[in-house]
Every structure is written in C-alpha cells, then in structure tokens.
Amino acid sequence: MLEVAEALATVLSHTKPLKTEVAALTTAALGQVLAVDILADLDSPPFAKVLRDGYAVRAADCAAPGAPLKVIEEVPAGKVPTKPVGAGDATRIFTGAPIPDGADAVVMQEDTRRAGDVVTITDSAVKPRQWVFAQGTEMKAGAVVLKAGTPINPAAFGVLASVGKTAVPAFPFPRVGVIATGDELIEANMKPKPGQIRNSNGPMLTALTVRGGGLPRYLGIARDDRAITRSLVAEGLEVSDVVLLCGGVSVGDYDLVPQVLTDLGVTTHFRQVLVKPGKPLLFGTGPKGQLVFGLPGNPASSFVGFELFVRPAIRILGGHAEPGPRTITLPTAEGIAESNDRPTYRPAQLVQGATGWTVRILPWGGAPDLAGLQPADALVALPAGDTRADPGTPVSVVLL
C-alpha cells in the first residue's frame, strides 16, 4: 500500500503533456496553456501617447505659472498631429492620441484656463514626460510578452490580441471519460426503487473534471456485468486521455473493474493508497498511454482521490508546469481532537478574520457524506494517530 506522496509520484511518472494543437482564440481556449513563447510584433504603444485630456506643451514654456500659450491644433484619439509644438505653442489633446513633435509634457485640462485660442497653464510644476506614455513602454517589438507555459487567462487574451494573434499553439484540454459502476445506481431523473440510489459520482466527477481543466465525457453506468463494464471501459479507452471509474475497484465478488482493465491491456501500477477516505484506489495505464483511475464508490472518497491524484495528472497533460495539489499551512480556527488509523483529509472551510486566514474543519459523516463535503473549499491533512490541537495550531491545507 503506497503513501499519498509515493502514489502521486507514480501517477506523475506516467504522465506527460499532450501533443499541442493550434487553438483559435475564442472563449473556448480560456484556460489552455501556451506551448510557445509569444513575441510582440510592434512596440506598444506604437507611439508616445497621451494619458489625460488636456494640452500638449513644452515643459520649459510652463516654468512660470500663468504664461499664455497659443492653441495651434486639436487632436482627438485616432488622429495624428499635423503641427509641431514650438515655443509658446500648445495643442489641445485627448487621451490616447499621439503627442505632437516638439511637445514633451501634457497638462491636464483641470490645470488650465482657456480663452479663445489662448490657454493659460495654472499648474506650477509641469515636468517633462508627465502624462505621456512613451513608445514601447508596455512592450518592445520582438520581446517575449507571454512565455510558453502561460495559461490563457482573460488578460492573456488581451495581450494576444494586441500583438495580432488570433490563433496560437497550445496544449489541448485532456479528454476525460467518466464511468460510474454498480447495479444499485440509477440516473438523477429516475425515482429509486428499493435498494437503488441515484448516481451522484458521475455528475460530481464530470464537474470536478471541468474545474480541473479537462473535457469530460460521461459514458454512463456500468452494471455489475463483465460484458457491459468491458464495453464502457473499452469506449473510454478509445475516446479519452484519462478514464475515471468510480466503484468496483475493491476486492468484493462484484468488483469487476480490475480484471476488466487487465483484459483490455491496462497495466495496473497500484490498487491501494494509505489515505482516508479512499484507500481502494487504482491507477493504471492503457495500451496507448491512457491514464486510468479506479476511484472508490463512496462519493467523498472519490472526491478526495480526484483532488489528490487525478487533478494533478490532468494539469500535467494540459501543459501546466506545476501539478499540485496546492498545499499551504494555516492556523486552525477551532481546536482539533481526532484519532485516525490512516492519514486523513478532512473537508474544511477557509475563514477570513481580522488577523488573517484560518481554516475550520467541517462537521462530516465520513466517506458516504457528500452533502457534508459540499461547503468545503479546502481539505485539512491530518496525520495517522491521535491529533490534539488548540485553536491557532498550524495545519497542512489542500486548497480546492
């Protein structure tokens, strides 16, 4: 039985980024990871531009406050000045317009008085370059503006547009097939008969996949029948980079998944992890390098297994440099008194207080308690054995 760190290392040793694709820069690419450096094709801004509505002047002409200047031209954004600013001149200028030749500063309109074609500067401290955004301040032509490995977030969309990119090489979102198992399961739109329960793992894992950066494909419920299970797993291996099965991976008479995987050419690398919840957790690789996870049937166990092992694999497949899980240390909001036979990941909430962030362990009924897990935005990692901690004690926290 592997410890969590050893199991994660095994998963990541079999995980490599997917082959890149050319991604059109629509919102469908939000969250994909750039596969190449992106260079600026032009300086930005491409000219020295004005940052405030006002008057373009020579700073030297404004050394004595109250000096009148002749307004020679008006230049809105989108237009180009046609007259240079000479001694005693000023150009009426608007935010975003190029600063005229000869001018080296902009005086805000609030610091002026205008009468006809004469403007009086009331600012007594005009300095060269004030309210002027110099050419190339944001980026220089040929410079790297986004490095390979950068996730395409909303700001990156703007940067890419500013350098003329409408499509870029990027890592695709990993395709994730989701299969629930068990004769007791029915879909959410059905009314359970005696002995049946609605399938919560399928929708939960589908949503976790999206949040983790994958493209889910729900393949349905595999009944406790070898042929049906084999058919769904074979489909998953055909259409997915990652196959997630929940349930059927333990050692009971109806736990058919391990043998079906072997029959389909999946190599199993481990079947148990020293963790609570979620000890019966299988990881294998398919004949084409597909990643296969057999998660426990209890929903909280499946959730924790996904966060600790599946999400990091999806991130690496998708081109992220850091797999996670993201772990920080925070003080506890309340005391802890627990005894656990294995390292345990308890649902928790981050709490912001006057002195900073703390973490509070949530009331929870164990591996079957999905409703108790729902408010969690973190997991507190507790060691095996007795844990006795006062409020304010630092603990390890996995961020969700």
Notable characteristics:
Molybdenum Cofactor Biosythetic Enzyme, Chain A, single chain, 6-stranded mixed beta sheet, 400 residues, 4 domains
Structure notes:
This protein has 400 residues and is of the alpha+beta class. It folds into four domains: 160 residues, MoaB/Mog-like domain (Molybdenum Cofactor Biosythetic Enzyme, Chain A, 3-Layer(aba) Sandwich), CATH 3.40.980; 46 residues, Molybdopterin biosynthesis moea protein, domain 2; 85 residues, Molybdopterin biosynthesis moeA protein, domain 3 (Beta Complex); 73 residues, MoeA, C-terminal, domain IV (Beta-clip), CATH 2.40.340. Helix content is 19%, strand content 32%. The chain is built from seven helices and 28 strands. It has a six-stranded mixed β-sheet, with no helix packed on it. The longest helix is centred in the last third of the chain and has 19 residues.
